[in-house]
Design brief:
The structure holds two protein chains of two kinds. Chain A is α+β, with helices and mostly antiparallel strands. Chain A has helices at about 5-15, 20-25, 35-40, 45-50, 75-80, 90-95, 105-115, 125-130, 155-170, 185-190, 220-230, 245-250, 260-265, 310-320, 365-370, 400, 405-410; strands at about 1-5, 30, 55-60, 60-65, 100, 120, 135-140, 175, 180-185, 210, 250-255, 275-280, 295-305, 330, 340-350, 355, 360-365, 375-385. Chain A has three domains: about 1-100, no CATH class; about 105-140, no CATH class; about 155-410, 2-Layer Sandwich (BirA Bifunctional Protein, domain 2). Chain A is elongated and about 120 Å long. By secondary structure, chain B is an alpha+beta fold. The chains are: A alpha+beta, B alpha+beta.
Chain lengths: ~425, ~550
């Protein structure tokens, strides 16, 4: 089966072939090319085919008729097509892309489809190609029926929060850092001026490791400065005044806070600097609906000669505002490595409750000086899971990490703390 | 964390003011203690480890009086008397001791309870469970000074310990007495410490138990206090907290002369220089010297203006002897901030021009996640902590040697190692979600941890970022898995090969290792039914795991 192309329709049904139209114009007398150009937009095609068919010649810019055929091959072929005769002309039509061939099996398939059903159920490529759809009607759907649910691939709920928090800090000009889960006690505690016999370093709170057995310490200069600060302090601080042991600092732990990441970064920065890190921290706790031994922290530091306590509160307020908490308050807290220490709390309206969000403060000079930093450093480590946990649909923190309840993950809307 | 319980009416008596619920709930925590519990009679606060002076009702009330503007200025404590003698001999197991006497305390039921609580909390906090500091409080009138601190043979020395009817040797106390466990602190020493009086009557076997005959009761009026341990300075601080606490109840502090050490307790006022400019700079405020002085006095400090040559103006702050946490001027700054009230500071973001910069690896991970989401996969998140049964046994694999990060002291026995693969956790997720509609397509991109041998035969912890995905449905096939892999690798611009493997987690002939150059970077295949049975999964699963270190 053959079918006229768009061009075929134009030249064989609507208008005549371009060369035929040309001959009509020059039939009486030869015409100037420039004149013809104005008369015919497809003059190039017309001249081309008229020449090939040896019907014209061009002399001194004028087109002159040699002979006028009674019928062009293409016109004859079109009639042959209707009579289902295979002639040489058909090749010409195909060659000139005036018709295209539709394979027999396609036609057969389309016809069969229409024989089976009086109405079209599926609009098939065959029906479209053969244009046989013109002879049939479409079966109608119940367009009011709602669709069956499908499950798109999606990010984990927590990833939406992490993405949002990353964007907030990047927008505020913070640089993102990451670090390993396994740390030496040196970076988890000693560098943070936590005395070696401090209760947080006891077994109950911290995951110590049996493998690897020990960790490498950083370069000697820093170790020496940290040791001195613990043992003797400096001209401003009394220090902890005890014998600091290197073996203790080498003990590997799963990092108890992501401050281990920012304190390491502090070594290398040139103030003013703003750094953030989002990552897991580990505490040796038993599991219940609101506690897991691992959780994510949003860690940030700002190191600058200019910063002060009010600025610390300013950053915290701004962050929580961007997370959708309008009201925030600050209570004194305690961390061995900050002074002032602050526990920010946000107001959660649905429950009429103030919620603890984590810890913050200004690093003690005993922390920053051994790192070579002599300016105030604001710091915070905020609990990430506390925010999604406010969602009434999320009743148990284990739904995040443990069960990965697909029903919850699939159906949770994307309007997450916009 | 120490949570201390106070009787509200006792606190009220001590500060001579009624405490409303609002004060107890909202105002007092602004002093620096979290409220844990409140009812009509009692209140519980979490006392931070830097303030052991707040661990007693009396000490807490003292601080409260300052904080609520009921008291002002530095408190001085006098030390009276000529001094009872304490002979300090060489005690290898527990070399340090200090002591004091407090007279004329009217021991009521309340005071006795408060004292017990203080002692217990001090033991737990700065005492590090008695290892660093142990306190003994005795009825002075039942013994005769001078006292002697000495070491004795635990198998021979006998006395009648508190709560016991009969005499026991120190060794027997360790074995039989409920407090005997503290003798473990003396482990490795063949001689143990005791305190005896001039008649060789025992006062105490530190850090374990006092003697029955010095028991403090409601009849007791005069006290002898010993503090033993390993760090002299901490002992002195502990002693100061106890004697000043008793002074708040009207006790008179008397001295003890310790051989080789001098007179104790040492309640001399320590000084620290604090620059007003430093205070203002750190807090972002503009306090005048007068305000500075006022805040200090209202937090129980003393103030001494010190003008040195030139323009530098420093002030000297006088520290009361019960404050054991002041080691840097910043500690004073914090107390000023607390007195001023944290809620009085106006939050403000400073103008600091820095350029935001995201971590490149995180960005790439994020892009890769997008591809997987585009392939219709749901992201899941699992814990890093897990166990070898889940990681290997259930996967039909053997636990590898020297490859796992192992926890030394996990509270939860289900968590003994850090994960080195994610694929097992995805199977766990599928197992937990069998009631949810199929097909189920899940992935996780996350950190795994492995041990790695270094050049000098040490082992190091190595973080590996891995991608794992799994699909479960009534019908799955191997080709679907490889086609997923192909889409991922095309997007990562990576060439790779699939090579036969023996990995027993997968079905033979439907499994391969993924190889890039010479490196094996992952595995792929249809999960073995034995593994599915282990996880009680009832539908077939295809899965793969890719090590992204060499790909991202």
């Amino acid at each position: 089966m053959y079918k006229l192309t768009e061009e075929g329709k134009k030249y064989l049904l609507q208008k005549d072939l371009p060369e035929k139209r040309l001959i009509e114009i020059i039939e009486e007398e030869p015409k100037d090319i420039n004149y013809l150009k104005e008369k015919m937009e497809d003059l190039d095609i017309a001249i081309n085919w008229a020449k090939r068919k040896k019907l014209i010649k061009i002399e001194k810019g004028k087109v002159k008729l040699i002979k006028k055929p009674s019928k062009h091959l293409e016109e004859k072929a079109l009639e042959d097509l209707k009579d289902k005769k295979e002639t040489k002309g058909i090749e010409r039509l195909l060659d000139r892309k005036l018709i295209k061939e539709i394979r027999e099996d396609v036609v057969k398939k389309a016809k069969k489809q229409l024989e089976r059903n009086t109405k079209i159920t599926h609009l098939t490529p065959e029906l479209i190609q053969t244009e046989l759809w013109k002879d049939a009607e479409f079966k109608e759907y119940n367009i009011k029926a709602l669709g069956k649910k499908k499950h798109p691939g999606k990010k984990h709920i927590l990833t939406y929060y992490i993405d949002k928090i990353r964007r907030i800090f990047l927008d505020m000009g913070f640089e993102e850092h990451t670090g390993p889960y396994v740390e030496s006690s040196f970076w988890a505690f000693d560098a943070l001026y936590t005395a070696q016999d401090h209760p947080v370093r006891e077994m109950q709170d911290t995951f110590f490791l049996s493998k690897p057995k020990e960790m490498k310490l950083p370069d000697k200069k820093i170790v020496k400065r940290v040791k001195r600060m613990h043992e003797k302090g400096d001209k401003e601080s009394k220090g902890w005044r005890y014998k600091w042991k290197e073996e203790e600092a080498k003990k590997p732990v799963l990092r108890t806070h992501t401050t281990a990441v920012t304190i390491k970064a502090l070594r290398e920065v040139e103030p003013p600097a703003k750094i953030f890190s989002i990552g897991k921290a580990f505490r040796n706790e038993t599991i219940d609906y609101s506690h897991l031994p691992e959780f994510n922290q949003v860690e940030g530091i700002v190191a600058s000669e200019e910063v002060n306590f009010r600025n610390l509160l300013g950053y915290l307020k701004e962050f929580y505002k961007k997370m959708g908490f309008e009201k925030i308050r600050f209570r004194p807290g305690y961390f061995p490595y900050t002074e002032m220490s602050v526990e920010p709390e946000v107001y959660y309206e649905p429950k009429d409750e103030w919620l603890e969000m984590g810890g913050a403060g200004i690093f003690r000079p005993e922390v920053t000086k051994p790192m070579g930093i002599d300016v105030p450093v604001l710091a915070w480590g905020l609990g990430l899971e506390r925010i999604p946990m406010l969602d009434p649909e999320i009743k148990d923190i284990r739904d995040f990490y443990y069960r990965n309840d697909l029903k919850l993950l699939r159906n949770k809307g994307i309007k997450i703390r916009e | 964390m120490s949570v201390v319980e106070f009787k509200i009416n006792e606190l009220e008596k001590l500060i001579d003011k009624t405490l409303s619920d609002e004060l107890l709930k909202d105002k007092i925590p602004m002093m620096g203690c979290d409220i844990e519990y409140l009812d009509k009679e009692k209140v519980r606060y979490e006392i931070f480890p830097n303030r052991p002076d707040l661990l007693s009702q009396e000490g807490f009330a003292r601080a409260l009086k300052y904080f609520l503007d009921l008291d002002k200025g530095l408190k001085k404590y006098e030390v009276n008397g000529k001094g009872v003698k304490l002979n300090k001999k060489r005690v290898k197991a527990r070399p340090k001791i200090t002591a004091a006497i407090v007279k004329n305390v009217e021991i009521t039921e309340e005071i006795l309870k408060s004292l017990m609580q203080l002692q217990e909390k001090l033991h737990k906090t700065i005492g590090r469970n008695r290892e660093k500091v142990a306190i003994g409080i005795h009825d002075l009138d039942n013994v005769n000074p001078p006292f002697t601190y000495k070491q004795v043979k635990p198998g021979k020395f006998k006395f009648n310990p508190l709560g016991c009817e009969e005499e026991l040797t120190l060794k027997e106390i360790k074995e039989k007495h409920e407090k005997g466990k503290y003798a473990n602190i003396l482990k490795g020493h063949d001689k143990w410490p005791v305190i005896v009086d001039s008649n060789n009557k025992t006062l105490s076997f530190p850090p374990v138990i006092n003697s029955q005959n010095t028991e403090v009761t409601k009849e007791t009026r005069n006290l002898f206090i010993d503090v033993t341990g390993t760090h002299q300075e901490t002992l002195e601080k502990t002693l100061n907290i106890i004697v000043t606490t008793l002074a708040e109840r009207g006790g008179e502090i008397h001295k003890v002369k310790i051989k080789g050490l001098g007179e104790r307790p040492n309640l001399e006022i320590e000084e620290i220089d604090v620059d007003l400019d430093y205070v203002n700079k750190m807090l972002g405020v503009d306090f005048t010297e007068l305000q500075f002085e006022e805040h200090l006095k209202r937090m129980g400090y003393g103030f001494k203006e010190k003008r040195s040559l030139g323009y530098d103006r420093e002030n000297t702050v006088l520290i009361p002897p019960y404050r054991v946490d002041i080691m840097h001027p910043i500690d004073i700054v914090e107390d000023i901030a607390i007195k001023h009230g944290y809620d009085e500071f106006k939050p403000e973001i400073p103008e600091i021009a820095t350029i935001g910069n995201s971590n490149e690896m995180k960005e790439r991970e994020s892009k890769l996640k997008e591809i997987l989401i585009g392939l219709g996969y749901q992201e899941v998140k699992n814990m890093v902590l897990t166990n070898t049964k889940n990681q290997f046994e259930k996967m039909n694999r053997k636990k590898p040697e020297n490859k796992l990060i192992e926890l030394k002291n996990p509270l939860d026995k289900k968590h003994t190692v850090c994960r080195s693969n994610i694929i097992s956790q995805l199977l766990k997720n599928l197992s937990n979600n069998q009631h949810v509609s199929y097909p189920q397509r899940i992935f996780e991109l996350g950190k795994c941890l492995e041990l790695e041998k270094t050049n000098n035969n040490h082992f190091e912890a190595k973080t590996k970022i891995k991608l794992s995905l799994a699909k479960s449905d009534t019908k799955v096939n191997y080709n679907e898995a490889t086609s997923l892999l192909e889409s991922i690798m095309r997007n990562l611009d990576q060439e790779y090969k699939l090579i036969e493997t023996e990995n027993p987690s997968f079905i033979k002939g439907r499994r391969a290792k993924i190889v890039k150059g010479k490196d094996e970077i992952g595995s792929i295949g249809e999960i073995h039914p034995k593994v599915l049975n282990n996880w009680r999964i009832e539908k077939p699963v295809i899965a793969m795991e890719l090590d992204l270190d060499k790909l991202l």
